[in-house]
């Protein structure tokens, strides 16, 4: 079987694609996998690092408003479609799986042109333009929200990395805390804002450092590589406030924590629910409001808290979050609620869909 994955641009598109690739390869080490991408996206680093072939096509950002740039789109899109079609031909693709983003639109159009079966995966409650288009060309649409507006939507969840999907937080807790220089027996809060950090989270959390110490709460704070916020050093033997610029072992970061404070991207919400880690979600205050929509079902189920970016402050943390962290029974109930909202086998479910689609296409061809 030969599969082309179209999911470039951001980690939210790339990581589910790579998780699917891993699931397909676990089932059949000889499966052919090619990832479509552009030179602008994170895929230029992430895809080769995971051992998969990357084929680059020209990026074609679609303007959201009527601008002179809109006049250049048809010509550039035509070039990207032809480039994607060439990748499909070279790979002898049996199926194209799209995850949205810049590369998905030319991928879908090229697959339609070449009569290659299409599967669409949508991670967000509000589908992007690419997946709205792709869903018109196929009946095979996998989604991560039960009330998705896309036609033919089938709930699958978001494919996650194996080290996250199989994580046993409780079993790894002591090892994880030791790894980050934390004490084994104190309530622990994990703070992160994505790969680049989040300034408002960083500022509020660092300002709240004295409150954390007074409450006996230790903190693991992934501040981002370009952020310089640092709390005053903690006295030896007391609750620590550990800051790191980046973390390539998020499995251990999750295992070290009793609770998280973070943004509410689709991947973040899916990972935290899968590992049953309750969180304070602080949705990014820009865009179409999809981060709030990602977090709301988890919060409604009792698996987290929600606070607007503008309301987050050291005082809010002291008033609203610290009493929760100091109540282990409440944290345990929130953990159970978050876990009920998670799905750990979305990669397997989506891989099964790929096999079914390829098998059906082969039968119809015969």
From TrEMBL:
Localization per record: Cell membrane
Membrane-related topology note: Peripheral membrane protein
Catalytic activity: di-trans,octa-cis-undecaprenyl diphospho-N-acetyl-alpha-D-muramoyl-L-alanyl-D-glutamyl-meso-2,6-diaminopimeloyl-D-alanyl-D-alanine + UDP-N-acetyl-alpha-D-glucosamine = di-trans,octa-cis-undecaprenyl diphospho-[N-acetyl-alpha-D-glucosaminyl-(1->4)]-N-acetyl-alpha-D-muramoyl-L-alanyl-D-glutamyl-meso-2,6-diaminopimeloyl-D-alanyl-D-alanine + UDP + H(+)
Sites where the protein binds UDP-N-acetyl-alpha-D-glucosamine: 10-12, 124, 161, 195, 291
Any one GO molecular-function label of the UniProt entry: glycosyltransferase activity
Domain Glycosyl transferase family 28 C-terminal per the UniProt entry, residue ranges: 188-346
Pathway: Cell wall biogenesis; peptidoglycan biosynthesis
Predominant location: membrane
Top-rank taxon, per record: Bacteria
E.C. code: 2.4.1.227
InterPro entries associated with the record: GlcNAc_MurG, Glyco_trans_28_C, GlycoTrans_28_N
Protein family membership: Belongs to the glycosyltransferase 28 family. MurG subfamily.
Function summary: Cell wall formation. Catalyzes the transfer of a GlcNAc subunit on undecaprenyl-pyrophosphoryl-MurNAc-pentapeptide (lipid intermediate I) to form undecaprenyl-pyrophosphoryl-MurNAc-(pentapeptide)GlcNAc (lipid intermediate II).
Descriptive protein name: UDP-N-acetylglucosamine--N-acetylmuramyl-(pentapeptide) pyrophosphoryl-undecaprenol N-acetylglucosamine transferase
Lineage, opening ranks: Bacteria, Bacillati, Actinomycetota, Actinomycetes, Streptosporangiales
Record gene name: murG
